[in-house]
Amino acid sequence: MAIYHFHAGVISRATSPRTTCAASAYIGGLRIACGRDGRVHDYTHRHDVVAGGVVLPDGASAGLSEPSVLWNEIETSVERGGRAQLAREMDAAIPVELGRDARIALARGYAESLSREYGVPVQWAVHDKLGNPHVHLLAPLRSIDPDTGRWMPKSVNAYLVRDANGNEREATAAELKQLGPGWQKVYRYKGGADQLTKAEAEAVGLHPTRDRTSKSPVQTTRYLSPWSGNWGDGDRGAELTRWRERWAAACNESLERAGSDARVDHRSNRERGIELLPTVHLGPNVTATEKKAKAEAKASGEEYVPVTERARTNETIRRINELLRELIRIMNELIRTRREKAKTLEGKRRAQRAAARRRPRRKTPYAPQRGRKVSPRGGYGR
Fold this sequence. Notes:
By secondary structure, this protein is α+β, with helices and mostly antiparallel strands. It has helices spanning 20-28, 67-78, 100-118, 173-179, 198-203, 238-257, 283-300, 309-358; strands at 6-12, 31-33, 40-42, 49-55, 85-93, 122-127, 134-140, 155-163, 168-171, 183-185, 187-188, 195-196, 219-223, 373-374, 380-381.
């Protein structure tokens, strides 16, 4: 059956020493020397990478189609901060029902759709090992200006501004310039006065600069694209849900073209009304360890027992889910039986009521009450 899996994350210097050059070499089975730290990452020995490449948006330099050029430019020229977020990475399962050509077309098409929508280069690679076909995607968080071919900023500062009438709004430096001199940035001040403009601070007897608690005005970060933001800042998780839904739709279209009846669903068990526990993702290292343990158990004629914590957890979840499925089956059978009995009983009652309506009423002879005399006219006498 077709299995759905989609994971997305961010490569950041603040949380991990891993570079985008290392990630690119791994997913593409390449040899890349990183210009930032001087390390050489060689994964040319990998045999499970069956296809891959880089999809470029409009305006991008043709040289960026080479992964080593693309990611060295990101590491050394574009992202220089020590805590910078560098790239977004994704991996997704490809249905085993698809042939190799269909798998490659599915992965390339999804990468092209992301590049076209967000204006970013997307490196993609299809891995096919041990019946586990999947795609890896890696893309910078900055988009490329289609007119100039330059890298665009991920975000801009939006300041809280206020006019003389007390109207407030958020505005970037360029937007504030267009609003005119009547609008001023808001700062935080000492002495219980929280957020004031310079004019308001002077009006209450505060120095417009010395009495501030911070030199920076009240501001927020406005991401220029949902791709650069935190999964779509306005609605946390909205963009990730959209990416997952898009991948499920692409998989189902490919399955339909291939003539397969299998389908995938991006929704969780809970959203689909399936009361089962989700398993944990094993990852390549745990999968390799468990594969070795299975081979050793088979060679020695012993029963295979998971050796890693994650695999043991999944085995426990699998057994619990089997019990849940059996309980759900028994409950559904009981509900079905009760409904059938109720339906049969209701049918009998309807038949009885219908027969009673068709049966003619039997006339009973008149019987006077005891101790009463009957009048000649048929009434009661005294």
